[in-house]
Amino acid sequence: MITITKNEEVVLDQIKIFNIEYPQGIPINVLRKELGFHEYDLVQILEELQEKDLIVFKDNKASLSDSEKQINTVDSRKDLKKLELNMKEAESYKLIQELVDDKNLISKYTLEGHLLYGDLKLTNFRMYHIILSLQNKGLLKSIEKDDGEYYLLIE
Questions:
Q1: CA 144, CA 151: separation in Å to the nearest integer?
Q2: What is d(CA 120, CA 2) in angstroms, rounded to the nearest whole number?
Q3: 11 and 44 in contact (C-beta within 8 Å)?
Q4: Who is most buried in 50, 68, 75, 90, counting CB within 10 A?
Q5: pLDDT of residue 50
Q6: Greater pLDDT, 26 or 87
């Protein structure tokens, strides 16, 4: 499922409307006149939609991509970031469940290494934010043992 903002949805809907009329791609000035967006903002939205593989934006023309995807709409970029963080948090928790030993323990450095350099490729800031969030929710607990620092997965 792809998550987009309300403005991205408005632009995407307009592209769907004009797609039949402009089979070679909808010129950006046509979209700008119809939507009333500033050109800079419109280009930014078009590039975001292209990154999400919903449209093709090339030579100042936009057209629908061939892929059909399920779309979820949120109100703002802030909501989009929050949703993405929640999804990363869930993926991280699932990863932790796979990595813990039979006592539900994992070395702090092993966990951080998997979050930073594994499939999730989180940034330092996001990794620590997710770990802190999981601790605040009571799902993960930091433990000091004689041989190092560990996290205890609480299920």
A1: 9
A2: 17
A3: no
A4: 50
A5: 92
A6: 26
Q: What is the 3-state secondary structure (H, E, C) of the chain?
A: CEEEEHHHHHHHHHHHHHCCCCCCCEEHHHHHHHHCCCHHHHHHHHHHHHHCCCEEEECCEEEECCCCCCEEEECCHHHHHHHHHHHHHHHHHHHHHHHCCCCCEEEHHHHHHHHHHCCCCCCHHHHHHHHHHHHHCCCEEEEEECCEEEEEECC
Residue 26 has what pLDDT?
94
Rg of the chain over Cα atoms, rounded to whole angstroms, equals 21
Residue 85 reports pLDDT greater than 70: no
Place of tokens 């991205």: 8
- Report, as an integer, the average pLDDT of 112-119: 90
Q: Are strands 2-5 and 71-74 parallel, antiparallel or unpaired?
A: parallel
Task: Give the Cα separation of 139 and 58 in Å (integer).
Answer: 46
**131-142 residue pLDDT tens:** 988 888 888 889
- What was the pLDDT predicted at 81? 66
Q: First vs last Cα of the chain: how many Å apart?
A: 28
d(CA 7, CA 73): 9
